[in-house]
Write a structure and sequence with these properties.
The complex is a heterotetramer, with two copies of chain A (about 325 residues) and two copies of chain B (about 325 residues). Chain A has about 325 residues and is an alpha/beta fold. In chain A, about 45% of the residues lie in helices and about 10% in strands. Chain A has a single domain, classed as Rossmann fold, CATH 3.40.50. Chain B is an alpha/beta fold and about 325 residues long. The chains are: A alpha/beta (about 325), B alpha/beta (about 325). At the B-D interface, α4, α5 and α9 of B face α4, α5 and α9 of D.
């Protein structure tokens, strides 16, 4: 499959952007500057990037608790994301959502989600809307390996398959649901076999190979756009960090992480890019710097932004009712 | 004026908006050719086809989840759960997704969706098909909850529910489907948060909704013979709530009885009583009474079910205890 | 597989018992003597019968809204069943449960269930208890085709498979969930393929052939008893009546029913019995009469029984608290 | 006397019964080697092994369903949900199965099972990981609901919960896990339905439980400076409810403030207020006040969350409004 140099550069840029954003978030959390739960995407960048590379702004995605990568890949703005992690009023959710609930309707991002598996059926709804309206939009549903044991996986894939909805189910199989390894949470190795239960195409790819992800999802997206229904794409990858920041990861061998670090998707792509002269080393360095700067600017934006007003606490519960405030 | 049943009223409300707006559609289990377990959607499949009146698999989670997703993506879904009891199966999609998305996302996504919820006992359907669960729903910030008692309100509330940009829980009492009533020729949306004074009175206020409106009116008739002049308020909309109508009435009668079919412990009537005891305490000159079902699951046997569920006699007794 | 004559006679007797009980219930409902919802098992008798034939009294089953057949097959007493349908205090549930909630702890019957799919995870719990205690009990979980799209099917089978629990999942594929045909509720033909998603053996058998059901479940039960884990057995069958009594079945062609009536499991077994001289025609007639008498006696018992006392309404909510009664 | 944290108290209660009774076991997501998301089960996996401390897949429906099935088949499961918010995913197994089976089956099956439910806000976990949902649970006939506020009660209520033959919802406030307290050397079960008077007083009764017990005691200290003598009642058990202790207190103080962290609309405090307004009305000489969270999902921002959740200051204000 021929991928244009421009696409390759864009993908590389996105992967870098995710890596730099996540690394910064990691440090900010460690410094106590970001509260709450933070689930990082480091090591899995190729999945979101490859999967979103075939999408338009008006396509949809649903995301998870580990959502930063998806949101960046779908075109989310680092400033508003970072401001949201800080809980500022300029954040994507005005500080009400935080890391686990970032959404951007203008980019079709139907939200990160704190409930494991919630995206599966929401994605089906978005796919239904596209089909119903007769547009050729698609929805990519991101989810983890462990979420495939949740009720919603089953109900969502079944409904998508009987209605032939334009949904691509992208499983990020990073081998664990928190501390529970895949071998302990399901009796299968390749999650793509579950597609059989819905008579839907299923495929497993190397999730650390952005091109492999791109190709598989691209094909699924084209079929979806043509009205040929949903696909399950499993991408095998690994999370480098603990489940959330602060997790000491006692449940997995250090060597396992070391092995996977060798498969880091970013140097792998860098190698390709340089070997194939898509970019020079100097370009690569410059792009790295640019992404770092972008992340720094985002932090700057976040830090300088205001906290939300107390009045905003009682807004947005409904579109038309403002709830009673508190006198304190 | 026309005559139609409550079930027909619900259908009429949906039909009017479906004719006007192609983004409105219905889905749920057996809502198509079968016409729904209680026949409410019968005929709509023939009229609108299988795109707009869709049968789903038995997957309540996916039904509500798909309502959320399709509403977020610009449609106006009406999801039918066959029985409100099956909410338990799609509770996450409703409570953690539908109700919270607007807020969590800073108001940037809106969810115009209606969930139809046939509720209540009286049809010998036992513990898993007879519940009244409005207390759960009214406790969830982000949901609106309405409960019509007659065909006219069924239409008017349905129109408002479909027009609303927030998730609206539309609860229906299954013993009312066949109950007829008068409907104005020109139907209009009934704004949420407007109670309906079904009968004016000066001695005691009965606040209720749904099926118990009929019981309350029957009780009022009986009590009239004892010269107790009852005011009966049909809330229609549980949230938003018409506090003003409640307060005005209590300022007049100084006595209040709250009636619902819920298991009494933790019932929505408790919220009403608490609100009155907090905001209108000095206007009450007698205990705030509640009438509800006993604190049991709903039993199958007709005799037991009739004993567990509240009726007009219980309302009469409650009112009399205040005099 | 060799089945003893005694087993064959017992199975035949059970099938007759179910058919006669259900036919009586049908008539009683039509006469307005049984209230509520009644879902009949007529036409599907071979499934429950064949599946329970390998079970002991201390084995468990979970049942469904269409539960009479399962309960009879597992050894339920017609008198207490009929009394329950009438809502009498002598019924299995003292009149509190009705048709959809019959249970008999002494026979391991963990209840009919009004919630589609509820049995899947309860069965897993019963299987867990057996494994945990180190007994060789098994649990047979009965459920319909349409319930296999419910969340619990997925979660239940996944958990059973990773823990290798002694559960046999018996799917009664009668082609419909109320008015929705299988083709419209799932994109597969053989539900047994869903076993792949859990790396569990899956098999499809003719559900109107009691021997086929018996053999498949028997094998699954032996494996379960030996600690070899769960199995999914799909039995293809058909319900003769509407979904519930009163359903006009507008959604299915009359010919379809006629075709299936030709495959009635009972005459088919009768033929085998007589041809193979397991019983004489006279024996068969006598057994039929005996079963009819048993059902009549059950009705008699039910009719003569008392309604439950009002006091009982507030009992059994808890084992130790009696709820407040009502003064009326 | 020993010192331990609330989290350790919960663990201690489970451990005592696990040592005594092989039928008691724990299961849930990451409760094994990982020790649970809040560390409550840490060490138990090493002590009891993977048969009795079991990690599950992310399948809350199957977790509660398996608790039901295994309890029906003779075990005494303790199921942990990682957050009470995930109840929505296993609600059917809890409400339509666990709570109703005893009744539906005529009392012939018993379900000795405990569900542990970490609840509440204050940890910046936002709308889907911060809820207080006791109102739903107390509304369900067939469930018992307890909510310890300190290590001693955590142990005593856990022992009773495990000993109980009915489904017991054991709610834990996640900000209390690290809070230490004194524990008697010899621990015993605390019977359900016995409230604990944390501080006697004559002027006003504050009824609360869980984390808000601390807020109430702080408020009482502040109010003492204004010569308002507050009685603080820690309910401990929400159902069964110790009405007698409540009535005794109100007969003394004639004023009552109800406090919980729930969204105020539809909160369990509403049930309490309604019960008092019905059964103890003439003893009250002031409005029955409620303090709760605002009627919003829980926001992420620290400032907003602190504003939405109730605190001691709100309790002080509520009490003062009665004088
Ligand atoms: C319904 C529900 N159950 C449990 C959790 C707690 N939880 C959050 S993430 C997670 C693990 C998810 O694993 P996986 O789906 O593989 O995604 P990953 O974290 O590996 O990206 C769990 C158990 C939750 N948020 N929602
Ligand atoms: C959770 C839930 N959803 C919907 C229903 C309503 N309902 C009862 S039976 C049924 C169809 C079940 O079909 P299937 O599982 O194939 O069993 P069958 O009736 O064919 O034996 C439905 C939709 C229910 N009881 N519970
Ligand atoms: Mg994972
Ligand atoms: Mg079926």
């Amino acid at each position: 499959m021929k991928i244009s140099n421009q696409s390759i550069i864009e993908m590389y840029e996105k992967m870098l952007k995710i890596r730099k954003f996540e690394t910064k978030a990691m440090n900010l959390f460690a410094e106590g500057k970001i509260p709450g739960f933070v689930h990082l995407y480091i090591g899995e960048e190729a999945v979101a990037t490859g999967a979103c590379a075939s999408l338009r702004d008006d396509d949809y995605i649903t995301s998870t608790h580990r959502g930063h990568g998806h949101i960046i890949a779908k075109g989310g703005d680092l400033k508003y994301m970072m401001a949201e992690l800080f809980g500022k009023e300029t954040g994507y959710c005005k500080g009400k959502g935080g890391s686990m609930h970032i959404a951007d309707a203008t980019k079709g991002i139907l939200g990160a989600n704190g409930i494991v598996g919630a995206g599966h059926t929401i994605a089906v709804g978005a796919g239904l809307a596209a089909q119903y309206k007769g547009t050729d939009q698609v929805c990519v549903c991101f989810f983890g390996d462990a979420s495939t044991n949740q009720s919603t996986f089953h109900e969502g894939l079944n409904l998508a398959s009987i209605w032939k909805l334009p949904v691509v189910f992208v499983c990020e199989n990073n081998g664990y649901g928190i501390s529970v390894s895949q071998a302990r949470h399901q009796a299968i190795t390749d999650i793509s076999v579950r597609a059989v239960a819905y008579n839907m195409p299923g495929i497993t790819v190397d999730g650390n190979d952005v091109f492999a992800v791109y190709e598989a999802v691209n094909e699924a997206v084209s079929r979806a756009r043509k009205g040929q229904g949903p696909t399950l794409v499993e991408c095998k990858t690994y999370r480098w960090r603990g489940h959330f920041e602060g997790d000491p990861t006692v449940y997995r061998p250090v060597e396992e992480l070391e092995q996977w670090k060798k498969k880091d998707p970013i140097p792998r792509m860098e190698k390709y890019i340089i070997e194939n002269k898509v970019m020079t080393e100097a370009d690569v360095t410059k792009l790295n710097e640019k992404m770092e700067k972008m992340v720094d600017d985002a932090v700057d934006f976040a830090v300088k932004s205001n906290n939300p007003s107390m009045a905003s606490a009682v807004e947005d519960v409904y579109t038309d009712i403002i709830e009673e405030a508190r006198v304190r | 004026m026309r005559k139609m049943t409550y079930g027909q009223g619900i259908k009429e409300g949906m039909r009017i908006r479906m004719l006007e707006n192609p983004d409105v559609f219905i889905f749920g289990e057996d809502v198509g050719l079968f016409g729904g377990c209680f026949g409410v959607t019968s005929g709509l499949f023939d009229e609108f086809g299988d795109k707009r009146v869709r049968d789903t698999p038995i997957s309540e989670g996916a039904i509500i989840g798909a309502a959320v997703g399709s509403a977020a993506a610009g449609l106006r879904p009406i999801a039918e759960l066959m029985f409100i009891d099956f909410l338990t199966v799609g509770m996450d999609q409703l409570v953690n997704q539908a109700a919270k998305m607007g807020y969590m996302f800073g108001g940037k996504i809106k969810l115009p969706m209606v969930v139809r919820l046939p509720a209540g006992g009286g049809v010998r359907a036992a513990a898993q098909h007879s519940q009244s669960l409005e207390a759960w729903l009214t406790h969830v910030p982000g949901l609106k909850v309405v409960y019509p008692s007659n065909p006219q309100d069924a239409i008017g509330l349905m129109l408002s529910a479909i027009d609303d940009d927030n998730p609206v829980m539309y609860i229906e009492h299954k013993t009312l489907y066949a109950v007829p009533g008068e409907v104005e020729d020109e139907v209009k949306p009934i704004p949420f948060g407007k109670a309906n004074i079904k009968k004016e009175g000066t001695d005691v206020t009965i606040i209720t909704y749904g099926k118990q409106v009929y019981d309350a009116l029957k009780a009022a008739e009986i009590l009239a013979k004892d010269d107790i002049d009852v005011e009966v308020i049909d809330l229609r909309s549980l949230y938003p709530l018409d506090k003003q109508t409640i307060f005005n009435s209590i300022e007049k009668t100084h006595k209040v009885v709250l009636v619902s079919e819920e298991a009494k412990r933790g019932a929505y009537t408790g919220e009403l009583a608490a609100m009155i005891a907090e905001e209108c305490f000095f206007e009450c000159d007698a205990p705030i009474k509640r009438v509800g079902a006993l604190n049991t699951p709903i039993p199958f046997s007709a005799e037991l079910e009739d004993y567990v569920l509240p009726n007009a006699e219980d309302i009469v007794n409650a009112v009399k205890s205040l005099f």
